[in-house]
Amino acid sequence: MMEVAAKRMENIGSDIRGKNFWAALDLEKQGQKVLKLNTGNPAAFGFKTPESVREALIKNLDRALGYSDVRGMIDAREAIFAYHKGKGVENFGMDDIFIGNGVSEIASMIATALFDKGDEILVPSPCYSLWSNEILLSDAVPVYYTCDESNHWNPDIDHIKSLITPKTKAILLINPNNPTGVLYSNEILLEIAEIARQNDMMILSDEIYDRLVFDGLEHTAMAKLAPDLTVLTMNGLSKSHCLCGYRCGWVVVSGPEAVRSEINAAMLKVASIRLGANSIMQTTIPAALADTEYSKSMIMPGGRLYEQRKATCEELDKIDGVSYVKNDGSLYVFPKIEKGVIENDKQFAYDLLMDKHVLIVPGSGFKWPTHDHFRIVMLPEADILRKAVSEIGDFITKTL
Questions:
Q1: pLDDT the model gives residue 341
Q2: Burial of 350 (0-12, 13-18, 19+ CB in 10 A)
Q3: Average pLDDT, the chain
Q4: Are 70 and 105 in contact (CB under 8 A)?
Q5: Other C-beta atoms within 10 Å of 26: how many?
Q6: Which residues 6+ apart lie within 8 Å of 158 measured at CB?
Q7: Among 4-8, 48-52, 139-143, 380-384, which is the least confidently predicted range?
Q8: Are 120 and 143 in contact (CB under 8 A)?
Q9: Banded model confidence at residue 187, pLDDT cuts 50, 70, 90
């Protein structure tokens, strides 16, 4: 019998929506209530459309009927241009911006346009699985550098240096990070920039959570720190404005003009094939980026994300045998189980689901090598999170 599926699919997958996710759906079909802490989807937990976005949608319904410019609507790109200029990014123009159906599509476009078979891309461990999958789908090779839990989950600079070969083409940063939720220090970012400078590497910087940073900390754009380098900065509205379903993401290419031109030519071919991003989504970008209060309201004391983070951490503190690095931003925390030995963290997560009806993603789902971590999505209301984390703690105490 003919083999139907492409061989490249053998290593493709995501535990965020993997076997345990489907098992959770089966439980729900049986009438069981499951708390799904596997994905950062604010709408599933009652977050509402910002009024600024709602008004933009109503105003632009007819305008969004047709295909847009393949790079993206001009006013949307103007708003993106102004946003990144405001963050100190230089050496880019309007034609260096591509809007996609979420950062997921942007990642696919970048991998298709820029990666050849055998190219090595340095990827953080732990890492959001979108990036490792897209690199594999392009027949390039993800090479995992360690983020150091003992150093606030910052990238291990010495390990990065040890992994560089003549095939290394780019290094990926996720800052604030998913799944750890930490914000990288400027000192670490500058060291990574120097490594890229010395080894003629592109930098891919996923900054989708840059507006969701707590405790008065400020996110620094990688491209601001490295204006002389080729930096592809990804961002969007899925998290900061709770618009996951709108599929709104973009990339800004900055750095030397000659390299930008080559990247743009390749990206334009891919963008043209897919005809253009979702037009109705693009009409909301200027209004959303102008609405800075929506994101701020969630991360200040009393705001939902702030209080949910507080509840999660307070409950984690009560669990004997669990440690964690408090997240600086994003929607996640990545605790470590110090108590007992877990031989299979996917089985651990499955058993937790069956016993407590709480769905988490095990650390191995983020390419973390040891079976002792898991990610919590901090999106349910604070009282729900308190109960869920307590249930996780009870399960750990009972089974390990």
A1: 84
A2: middle
A3: 95
A4: no
A5: 11
A6: none
A7: 4-8
A8: yes
A9: very high
In this predicted structure, the answer to whether residue 235 has a pLDDT above a threshold of 90 is yes
pLDDT tier at 66, thresholds 50, 70, 90 = confident
pTM over the 0.90 mark: yes
Q: 362 by DSSP, 3-state: which?
A: strand
The residues with which 376 forms a beta bridge, in sequence order, are 333
Q: Which two tokens stand for residue 399?
A: 């089974």
pLDDT bin (cut points 50, 70, 90) of residue 3 is confident
C-alpha distances (whole Å) from 133 to each of 33, 50, 99, 211 are 31, 32, 21, 26
Coil, helix or strand at residue 396: helix
- pLDDT 10s digits, 87-118: 999 999 999 999 999 999 999 999 999 999 99
The tokens describing 338, both together, are: 């110090």
SS3 205: strand
Give the CA angle between residues 43, 45, 51 to the nearest 5°. 45
Cα dist. 39→10, 249, 382 in Å?
A: 23, 17, 17
Q: Copy the structure tokens of residue 289.
A: 């980026």
Query: Is the pLDDT score of 8 beyond 90?
Result: no
CB count in 10 Å sphere of residue 116: 10
Return the bridge partners of 234, or none.
206, 251
* CA 19 – CA 35 distance, rounded (Å): 16
What six digits make up the tokens of 97?
A: 């911006």
DSSP, res 46: T
152 Cβ partners below 8 Å, 6+ apart?
182, 185, 325
Taking Cα atoms as reference points, which of 268, 267, 250 lies closest to residue 113? 267
- The helix/strand/coil state of 253 is strand
Cβ–Cβ contacts within 10 Å for residue 41, how many?
17
Cα separation, 268 vs 99, in Å, equals 11
Q: Which two tokens stand for residue 371?
A: 């079976």
374-377 and 361-362: which strand pairing? antiparallel
- Please report, as a single letter, which amino acid is at residue 368: W
What residue has token string 């290094």? 171
Q: Which helix (H) or strand (E) element contains residue 350?
A: helix 345-356
Distance CA 58, CA 168 (A): 47
